[in-house]
Amino acid sequence: MALRAWRFASVAGSARNFSSTASAGSSGPGDYLHESVLPMHHFQRSLPRLPIPKLEDSCGHYINAQRAVLSHEDATAHEALTEVFQKGVGADLHQELIAQDKRNKHTSYITDYWFDMYLSDRVPLPLHYNPFIAFTDDENAAGTDQLKRAATLVSSAMRFMRTYQDAKLSPELFHLNAKKTDNDHIKKRLSYFPEAVSWYGAYLHKVFPLDMSQYGRLFNSTRVPREHKDELVSYPGRRHIAVLSKGNFYTFDVLNEDGSAVSMATIYSALKEIQQSSQSENKDSIASLTSDNRNKWAAARAKLIENPSNAENLEMIDSSVFMLCLEEADPDSVRDLSYSFLYGESHNRWFDKSLQLIVCNGGKAAVNFEHAWGDGVAVLRFLNEVYDDVKKHPFEMPMTYPKAAVRSLSFTVDGSLKSSIASAKQRFNAHTSKLCMDVLQYSGMNRKFLKEKKLSADAILQFSLQLAFYRQYGFTPATYESCSTAAFKHGRTETVRPATVDTAAAVSAFLEKDKHSKADLRELINKASETHSQLIKNAAMGKGFDRHLFALKKIAEANGKNVDMFTSQEYKDLNHIILSTSTLSSPAVLLGGFAPVVSNGLGVGYRIDEDSIGSQVTAYKDGGKSTSDFVQALALSLKDIQDVFE
What we know:
Structural class: alpha+beta
Strand order of the largest sheet: 12-8-7-9-10-11-2-17
Shape: globular
């Protein structure tokens, strides 16, 4: 199951409380974005470990989540089953997890299980796992030119990579009071704490460092298909990027031999050469194989690398800093743009790469990323830093074009491989053609409105989704919202369950709002919001239940134990996520998108801006859910909430 981890706020609060740049010691237009006052890994050694919740707490939270989606009778019966689990086999599994965690103090208790979940799944990466995040448009005139936009993005991306690799990047910090602590004076003070206790020094100043272990796989990394379970492979020190243009592969160096970044003019020159070279489209590109079932791709890859030249060229792709995809299309609608960034044409994507940078013909750009290696925190940091750096270093037409050593990569494919490519393309096209998408931009409510009414923006949006879904389909769905646990060493994500007994009560009242006063409706929303905020706080602090129970389930499976609670239909239904949600808010982000995680579900991305609320909804055409009907129901729900508070 693809559980997208985009929620950036690790505790309830706004993104303004995060600091990830350094004002002092900035190196200007050189090889670095900045030179941090604080050492980049200053806090990593002393980060707290992800706590294992108490079993009784996890079981209690689990039953609370079940009560929102089950009838009273069914919830009571399942509570009895859960109590048997808690006092019996669950207690044994919990003790085994604690012992296992003590043997692996270098990481978190969920790390290996989480990697295994991603890497063992055999489904194709596009739609099932890889999401996209689109850059806000470049206001510079060059931003509408594909190669100029690509050159600026690649140039700034290399500054980010150089800043990270040379440990000049500022640590990721969450400030409870950013106005008071997000300054060089406090950061300099924190730098004096020894690394072994540095986290505690930050805590005393109400500053919370976040885990940065995922950053190492942003670049020069890839997912390699293997039979039964894939592998994440990194190639530190490689200096080239790979480029896909019309299904044709190219590489060129973006770092000099001394490790410095090549000039933007050199990058632009290389891209011009690639554009001129790739006049014919290769729709039979091996790139389509990366869109296929993982076992099928593993078998095709094994066949492919029997040829030494193919093996060498594949390694050039795998080891590249990232994959740059030059898109021939110039989508003119949000829907078509999203389709292009989410999956595009399979012959012009390499879904295995940790990071694909996609630039359309008209200059619009996004990243599409493989999800096993990491979550949205690292990717969003990358987008924010690159977007800001591009504004500082806009494209300037070079007086001369430096010669770039562009290398074309060609592959020898026999009849069986050609057949595999054709079959992969057919399956990809059949699957992606089922996806539908609709977009809502609601201007009646915005961040300012919610702040004036002292409402939790995320809680209100999640409630509006519950109200819209019930209005459209007549039941409360199993719902997922991702929350980062990056406050802990090797933290990944925890699940927030926005469907609660309190939201269900508020939904029922709103559907019969003529029977209730506005004051009563406001009180119900406020109660549901308080519950939601507490769930987010619990998740961010490692006190959710989903990851804990997931780990216990994996231990049971490894020991051949058949656990009634885990095999119950109620447990399966709660983890059949019909309403998968995620949010992003950043000036650097135009939009983000992902597909539903189940065939009969909805995928809902949303953002709360200063002037409006935006939402993007996806569903499969044969899944019984209508995206157009849902966005209409969502607009009506937002209007109902707005009316209650006006």
